[in-house]
Write a structure and sequence with these properties.
The structure holds 2 protein chains of 2 kinds. Chain A is mainly α. Chain A is built from 9 helices and 2 strands, in the order αααβααααβαα. Classes of the chains: A mainly alpha, B alpha/beta.
Chain lengths: 197, 208
């Protein structure tokens, strides 16, 4: 999990869980500090009164992306050792729709629901219970949907490979797009009257 | 707009633009042909079967034997502690971790030396550290360690020592009767093959 230090044997495998715990705590603290434990804040993205989700996730993505690209340039990180989730077209589309509905109805995504649960939110508790019910239903009906689940496997594709552009150009375009979105979002937030939540 | 956010946005854009204008760097850390030639002329990459055998018996923790033969042959017999990486899957990502580890001497072997040497060249091009070849491969290993010719009466003490080492090694691998006058039929060592399973690549967790 903690590449490249553990696969390269710089740190023993046994430390894996320790790092997972530390990273998980860091993630939780950041989510809570960004206000992600409030479903009304998260849902603001869909109603257009609070764009914190957009800002936090895009900032995280572009910071990590730039860090990776620079580290790779310096030769500190080997790209080929990174795990890339394989793309399953049908699963991605259907799963995305289900996730989107759940996200906009419940106001949480899985990670933030635990964040809300940790500070004792009842809606987060409801959401988490629902999530486990969903996991249970999915697991029990898995043999029925297994064929669809595994269909349309494109392998470990990257968007830069399918577009045929360099990683640096894509990174630059994404950063410009993200900064543009931040600008528009903060403009919108100022124009919309304050929503109490 | 808040000033600090403006500054952060500018830093991000400058940083990403920096990536764009950075001079193209040869990302692949390939060994240059001239360095390759020097390494090819260096016989230090070959380890004799006796050297390898000694390290197997000593259970040297820095030794990583890599069997380049097809899986079917590997299943029938392999040296203790060896892992199977067939030559055609040498570059697959899950084998990269094994070849790139710095703490171990990777000793390649096959039936002969040719495949090991090919694999060694590929590993060297990719800059993998501490890759060696068991000279002569399993055939040579069988001839020297398991079969082991008796030295002539006028042999030097060095040769006699080597022979007694081989006798002891034969006992280690085959067990039982290791006398030199034992029938020299191909012995199928009963040694339990220890297959070191590589942990599956850890998959990343969900999104948020």
């Amino acid at each position: 999990m903690v590449g490249p230090l553990i696969p390269m044997n710089y740190i023993p495998q046994a430390w894996d869980n320790v790092f997972a715990l530390i990273l998980g705590m860091g993630f939780g603290i950041t989510l809570e500090a960004s206000g992600f434990s409030s479903s009304r804040k998260i849902i603001g993205t869909f109603f257009g009164y609070d764009f914190v989700v957009l800002k936090v996730f895009f900032t995280a993505a572009i910071t990590a992306m730039l860090g990776l690209l620079y580290f790779s340039y310096m030769g500190w990180i080997d790209y080929s050792m990174l795990f890339i989730q394989p793309t399953f077209v049908a699963s991605a589309v259907i799963g995305g729709i289900i996730m989107g509905i759940g996200f906009s109805m419940g106001g949480y995504c899985p990670g933030t629901s635990f964040c809300g649960l940790a500070i004792g939110k009842l809606d987060a508790l409801t959401f988490t219970v629902g999530m486990f019910v969903g996991v249970f239903i999915f697991s029990e009906t898995f043999p029925l949907i297994e064929k669809m689940y595994n269909s349309g496997n494109l392998g470990n594709v990257l968007i830069t490979d399918s577009l045929g552009i360099s990683k640096a150009l894509f990174a630059f375009l994404l950063v410009v797009a993200a900064v543009g979105m931040f600008f528009v979002a903060s403009r919108l937030e100022r124009r919309i009257k304050k929503v109490e939540y | 707009m808040d000033r600090k956010y403006t500054i952060l946005a500018i830093i991000l854009i400058v940083a990403s633009f920096g990536l764009l204008i950075l001079p193209e760097k040869d990302g692949t850390r390939e060994t240059s042909p001239s360095k390759m030639l020097i390494q090819l002329n260096d016989r230090a990459r070959f380890l004799s079967t006796d050297q390898v055998t000694e390290r197997i018996i000593e259970a040297d923790p820095t030794l990583q034997l890599i069997d380049l033969r097809p899986e079917s042959e590997f299943r029938i017999f392999a040296l203790p502690g060896a892992i199977n990486i067939p030559l055609d899957s040498l570059l697959s990502p899950q084998n990269l971790n094994i070849l790139a580890q710095r703490a171990k001497d990777k000793v390649l072997y096959s039936n002969g030396s040719i495949e090991s040497d090919l694999a060694w060249q590929i590993c060297t091009i990719f800059g993998h550290p501490r890759v060696f070849i068991m000279e002569g491969g399993l055939n040579q290993w069988y001839l020297t360690v398991i079969k082991g010719m008796e030295p002539s009466a006028t042999a030097s003490s060095k040769e006699l020592n080597l022979h007694s080492f081989r006798l002891a090694a034969r006992q280690f691998f085959v067990g039982g009767d290791a006398e030199p006058d034992a029938p020299e039929k191909p012995v199928q060592p009963k040694q339990k093959i220890k297959v070191v399973k590589q942990e599956p690549t850890p998959s990343a967790g969900g999104g948020c």
